[in-house]
Specification:
The chain is mostly helical. It is built from 8 helices and no strands.
């Protein structure tokens, strides 16, 4: 029975890993086309988030294991997908319905999109950031909100996630 259970776990992990890698590829494509075809990019992102929502309800614990497997995926796309998955897992734990989880996941996927409006040299700078540079980086939620706020049909709840992802409850 234990051998069979381990086989099932390996099978689940393999299936989930394939889904995760596929999702990562779509996220990369979506982020690259957001400037040129925003409506299409959001539709693709919504599809990928939908498939992740389905996977979460079946294999949420398995997703957490994949997220800790950084390996070759350590980049902004990996970060965006992980933040999205973690947000959706938290939403699930709080009892949100699948539609709300989907909107949460979409906003979380695009949470750092405003960083595209900030010079990349600031993110790779070796010296400490000046206060002006730090202030500029603090505007990335606003820039992201402006970017996706122009996309017709982008859910208001998802936009709020982008705008408020650095806010404190107090």
């Amino acid at each position: 029975a234990r051998i069979e259970r381990m086989r099932q776990i390996r099978e689940q992990r393999s299936k989930c890993e394939k889904q995760y890698k596929k999702s990562l590829g779509v996220v990369k494509s979506v982020m690259k086309q957001l400037g040129s075809s925003p409506q299409q990019a959001v539709e693709q992102a919504d599809e990928v988030i939908g498939s992740v929502v389905e996977t979460l309800f079946d294999e949420g614990e398995m997703m957490i294991h994949l997220m800790s497997d950084k390996g070759a995926y350590e980049n902004a796309y990996f970060h965006s997908l992980n933040v999205s998955v973690l947000s959706m897992l938290i939403g699930k734990e709080y009892g949100l319905d699948s539609q709300s989880i989907q909107k949460l996941g979409l906003g979380a996927l695009f949470h750092d999109i405003g960083k595209n409006k900030i010079p990349s040299r600031l993110f790779t700078k070796k010296e400490p950031l000046t206060s002006a540079e730090q202030n500029l980086i603090c505007f990335h939620p606003k820039y992201g909100g402006e970017m996706v706020g122009r996309i017709p049909g982008f859910p208001r709840e998802s936009l709020e996630v982008i705008l408020q992802h650095h806010e404190y409850y107090n």
